[in-house]
Design a protein that fits this description.
GO terms for molecular function: ATP binding. By secondary structure, the chain is of the alpha/beta class. Among the domains are: about 150 residues, P-loop containing nucleotide triphosphate hydrolases (Rossmann fold, 3-Layer(aba) Sandwich), CATH 3.40.50.300; about 60 residues, Alpha-Beta Plaits. It is about 35% helix and about 30% strand. The protein has 11 helices and 13 strands. The strands form 3 sheets. It has a 6-stranded mixed beta sheet, sandwiched between helices. Strand 11 and strand 12 form a beta hairpin. The model has no long low-confidence stretch (mean pLDDT about 85). It binds adenosine-5'-triphosphate. Adenosine-5'-triphosphate binds next to strand 2 and helix 1.
């Protein structure tokens, strides 16, 4: 059974005026649906439109067109009801308070906050209560923001590049706190440009580039959609041109030493052809990795946008 939607965004667009009379179309027709309990990564390179999309989802920026519903209501209504919380890139913490004081103060602004000790433990900052915020590392401050976001016990938590600028150790600590929390059934939507974070943590990846969704699915599905496979084999160099023109599914052929590498949409058919019609041997079939998919999908979308300008 599929769970109901936590988020439904339809045909979102947003342009910003830049210096002079130019405008930048930051988001260009984004559809995004997230089911309750899903952990979804919005993955894309710098400037792809991730922050603008999340800001519209949270009701912080009004779309030029399109609509957003969170749990069936408008974003501001869902936020006011304490169903949504966010960890944003911007938004400061006060350095002169301790971590514990910060959580206490913000808890006091909520009608029915989760217990302070519990959110600090869940965010992995239970040991940092007495530390001044100004003495916390970037990663510790992000975990403090995460604790604050947990106070209203939200159904959906939105995080915009929560681990930007953290070292590997801090990122690991952050995600381990997040993962434990998401396991409890909370819906999580996060933006990142770290492919490995999206791959390791999300159930599903929505890849955006040039303000558009260029892929949406499980990591495995995105890999398959973007890149197909490569069939490589040792062949007689004289037959490379003929293979390129004749074999089924071929997208691109590259020769490396005595091997030919064939990027193909149908690796089975390509391999069968090689066995049946050539002297190919030492045949290998390799699925492209997510990194290849990311580069292929985002670069073609960005290039398309450039040509439209
Ligand atoms: N307030 C603004 N005024 C003008 N242009 C803006 C504004 N906000 C965003 N943009 C532009 O819109 C595009 C998308 O920006 P956005 O911040 O949404 O991307 P992003 O994917 O979050 O990037 P990053 O990973 O660098 O944070 C960029 O070209 C950006 O320069």
């Amino acid at each position: 059974m599929t769970s109901p939607l936590a988020l439904e965004a339809r045909a979102l667009t947003k342009s910003f005026r830049t210096r002079g009379s130019d405008s930048v179309r930051a988001v260009d027709g984004v559809d995004l649906a997230v089911r309750q309990g899903e952990v979804v990564a919005v993955l894309g390179p710098n400037g792809a439109g991730k922050t603008t999309t999340l800001d519209m989802v949270l009701g912080l920026t009004r779309p030029d067109s399109g609509s957003v519903r969170l749990f069936g209501v408008a974003p501001d209504e869902a936020v006011a009801a304490g169903r949504i919380a966010a960890v944003l890139q911007s938004g400061g913490l006060l350095g002169d308070f301790t971590v514990g004081e910060t959580v206490e103060i913000i808890a006091a602004t909520h009608r029915d906050p989760a217990p302070v000790d519990e959110v600090m433990r869940r965010a992995g900052i239970a040991e940092l209560g007495g530390r001044l915020v100004s003495k916390c590392s970037g990663g510790e401050q992000q975990r403090l923001k995460f604790a604050l976001a947990l106070l209203p016990d939200p159904d959906l938590i939105v995080l915009d590049e929560p681990t930007a600028g953290m070292d590997v150790e801090s990122r690991r600590a952050f995600w381990s706190a997040m993962r434990e929390d998401a396991g409890a059934g909370r819906t999580v939507l996060f933006a990142t440009h770290y492919l490995e974070e999206a791959d390791a943590f999300a159930d599903r990846i929505v890849m955006i580039a040039g303000g558009r969704v260029v892929a949406d699915g499980s990591t495995a599905a995105i890999r398959a959609q973007a890149s197909g496979r490569t069939v490589s084999a040792v062949v007689d160099p004289a037959s490379v041109g003929w293979i390129r023109d004749t074999a089924p599914g071929v997208r691109e052929v590259t020769v490396r030493g005595d091997r030919v590498e064939i990027a193909t949409d149908d690796s089975d058919a390509t391999a069968r052809f090689l066995f049946a019609h050539s002297d190919a041997h030492d045949v290998e079939i390799v699925a492209h990795d997510l990194e290849d998919a990311f580069v292929a999908l985002t670069s073609s979308a960005t290039a398309e946008k450039e040509t439209l300008r």
